[in-house]
Amino acid sequence: MLDLQSNEHTEKKDYSKRIAVLLNANARSVDEKIRKKAQEFIKKEDLFFSHSIEEAEQFAKEIVRRGYEKVFTGGGDGTITHALNAIRARAKELNLPTPQFGVLKLGTGNALARFLETRKASKDLKRLSKGEVQSVTPLYFVKTNDEQLAEQNKAPFMSLGYDGIVLNAYDDLRTISKNNIWDRIYASPLGYLFAFFYALPKLMAKRPNVQVKTLGTAYKIPSPYRGELEEIAAGTVIYEGPAKWIALGSIPFYGFGFKIFPFANKKDGFVQLRCINTPLRKILPRAMTGIRKGTYRPASTPDFLIEHIEVVSEKPLAFQTGGDAAGHRERIEFSSTKTPMEMVKL
Prior knowledge:
Elements: E1 19-24, H1 32-41, E2 47-50, H2 53-66, E3 70-75, H3 77-94, E4 100-105, H4 111-115, H5 121-129, E5 135-139, E6 142-144, E7 154-155, E8 157-161, H6 162-176, H7 183-186, H8 190-198, H9 200-203, E9 209-214, E10 218-220, E11 230-232, E12 237-242, E13 245-249, E14 271-276, H10 280-283, H11 287-293, E15 303-306, E16 308-321, E17 324-336, E18 341-345
Parallel strand pairs: 1-2, 1-3, 3-4
Antiparallel strand pairs: 5-18, 6-7, 6-17, 8-13, 8-16, 9-12, 9-16, 10-11, 10-15, 13-14, 14-15, 16-17
């Protein structure tokens, strides 16, 4: 494990063909078994256990400075997204190449891990030690202009509405239960179920009016989709009316295997947008069938591929990025990143 204060002897080593592993030491999924497996299969100087956001930032900078070809991290989609953004930012800051990025399946939702077809973390750590990388795939991310997020402004998916409400409620429950008997329960996957019921009054509330306008080229995805797209010019209002969920994704999956964005990879440099005004009571019965398979497309749910859009709501909507709550927004812009990130499949 890295000690930044006592690692001067590694300064002149060539790390360009090596793989770094960055893990959050405080994550429940990074238990003693995973720690031992990581220490068994990964060289000590290539293994980074962070105990705080500040330490993770330091490690990201060190990984980029050393010039690792690939870096793997594990945890939930939020943890992974934070690490990825930190590494990209440090590469830009130091004017150095961004490493290829891989994921270990150690989270709850595991959307990115599912997209990259990762397996059990302990087995993938063993494969990493043998250099068994199958392929590298380019992936564009959803980006926002939101200044509150600073460099954490890119994620595989973002949304306003339904899941933002639940994730904000989840954060509230974690805060309320801190240091008491409920903390362990809310920190588990069951916590999201409790958050759903806690947030139910807000989820069932009246839908606000929302306007979505293109600031770049967009395409409407016809239903049924037969391979053709309808081009839309910049400056066009593509959605206006009540909406409870404005969701964008650069990968097909959301957490828990739900295929929310079945068209996310149809066009390079574009991400999928869904504008949902369907009441929750009509969505939930289909959650385990059509939504999970990516076949649920009601007439009231327009689908688009977008380059850059502006969303304006008549009242603040709950916002989430990469599976982490991010407060509320009335106006926000979303776009696709201009260049893709090279993601590693094992």
